[in-house]
From TrEMBL:
<dbReference type="Pfam" id="PF00881">
    <property type="entry name" value="Nitroreductase"/>
</dbReference>
<dbReference type="InterPro" id="IPR050627">
    <property type="entry name" value="Nitroreductase/BluB"/>
</dbReference>
<feature type="region of interest" description="Disordered">
    <location>
        <begin position="301"/>
        <end position="322"/>
    </location>
</feature>
<dbReference type="InterPro" id="IPR000415">
    <property type="entry name" value="Nitroreductase-like"/>
</dbReference>
<dbReference type="GO" id="GO:0016491">
    <property type="term" value="F:oxidoreductase activity"/>
</dbReference>
<feature type="domain" description="Nitroreductase">
    <location>
        <begin position="203"/>
        <end position="301"/>
    </location>
</feature>
<dbReference type="InterPro" id="IPR029479">
    <property type="entry name" value="Nitroreductase"/>
</dbReference>
<protein>
    <submittedName>
        <fullName>Nitroreductase</fullName>
    </submittedName>
</protein>
<feature type="domain" description="Nitroreductase">
    <location>
        <begin position="6"/>
        <end position="33"/>
    </location>
</feature>
<feature type="region of interest" description="Disordered">
    <location>
        <begin position="187"/>
        <end position="209"/>
    </location>
</feature>
């Protein structure tokens, strides 16, 4: 193969792309490779009809896969040109990524690429160790670099406002039979399945009533553990709320998660209030000064969990010669 042929780098980058986080591990992506171009597409059959009827979280998940793809190509010394939402007639085509020659990777780009395979969602308790200011700034800068913002909920008042809306959202979802049926369908104890959240990934039940309630996956192990007293909670926000904003938010979330992983930090999500339009609106009024909440992360130090399954690259990729 000639040394400028990008096929090998693209193949490696697709393996990185599918390691992205996705809501309920739905992996709502498809890739089409045409020579040096990779098309990143939304798989509409994998959008959650109850939790995510507009496909916003699916687009965030695809944005995370897009970031992994870009980062892996850069680490392989490839220059990339990204065209987001290139065809208004095909909104499921979220972006094209074109390999455009060679450009050496920086050490920071290589660190990010190394973090792709080490990142997992960590729903277990974190240790009570404060995330230092330098790491907080690096997380904020990561989201900024992708055209979104990371709002740190670092005052007791902000945390309490969020906790109140989170409790309300979580209770509603627990009481909603349709939501629960969808969650059950995507929670799995079947080791042969390549998608869904394995019940073991749900983490232990909290002892007592924690300030911030993680999503309760069915079949969660019954062991009870104390959760950290002072978690770092950070919200990815965008100025608008279009498909392009969702794609940006997904890339920003993923860049922040990779920076966190490189710094030895774990993260999990609190999406419950963002999944409900009235509570999402309340977050805008109470916390974000009108910016649109896209994802909420709980960040801290803890022991990393096992990786969750993925559909093989061959199952989600087609190759075209035309
Ligand atoms: C947009 C988005 C929202 C998510 N929301 C939640 C959530 O509310 N609670 C949760 O425990 N995990 C949430 N997750 C994490 C996924 O369940 C997780 O990424 C998936 O199961 C794959 O596992 P991994 O992240 O360990 O690779 C979310 C992920 C994404 C991308």
């Amino acid at each position: 193969m000639d040394s400028d042929d990008p096929r090998e780098a693209i193949d490696h980058a697709l393996h990185a792309a599918v390691r992205a986080p996705s809501v309920h591990n739905t992996q709502p992506w498809r890739f089409v490779v045409r020579g040096p171009v990779v098309e990143v597409c939304l798989d509409g059959d994998r959008v959650l009809t109850v939790a995510d009827p507009d496909g916003r979280e699916a687009r965030l998940s695809c944005g995370a896969a897009l970031l992994n793809l870009r980062v892996a190509l850069r680490a392989a010394g490839r220059a990339v040109v990204v065209d987001p939402l290139p065809d208004p007639a095909h909104p499921e085509l979220l972006a094209t990524v074109r390999v455009a020659g060679r450009r050496p990777a920086t050490p920071a780009e290589r660190d990010l690429a190394d973090a792709v395979g080490n990142r997992t969602t960590n729903r277990r308790p974190f240790v009570d160790r404060i995330v230092p200011g330098s790491e907080r700034s690096a997380l904020v800068a990561a989201a900024d670099a992708e055209g979104a913002h990371l709002l740190l909920l670092d005052t007791p008042r902000a945390l309490e406002t969020f906790a109140t809306l989170l409790r309300r959202a979580d209770q509603r979802q627990e009481d909603d039979p349709d939501y629960q049926a969808e969650l059950r369908a995507w929670t799995t104890g079947d080791p042969a399945r390549h998608d869904g959240v394995p019940s073991a990934a749900g983490g232990p039940r909290p002892a007592g009533t924690p300030l911030l309630k993680l999503r309760d996956y069915p079949g969660r192990r019954t062991a009870e553990r104390e959760f950290e007293q002072d978690p770092l909670v950070a919200m990815v926000t965008t100025a608008g709320d279009t498909a392009l904003d969702h794609l940006r938010a997904g890339q920003a979330m993923q860049r922040a998660l990779l920076v966190a992983t490189s710094a030895g930090l774990g993260a999990s999500f609190f999406s419950q209030p963002i999944e409900q339009p009235d509570l999402r609106a309340a977050l805008r009024t109470g916390l974000t000064a009108g910016a649109h909440p896209q994802a909420v992360l709980r960040i801290g130090y803890g022991h990393r969990g096992a990786p969750t399954p993925r559909r093989p690259v061959a199952e989600v990729t087609s190759y075209r010669t035309e």
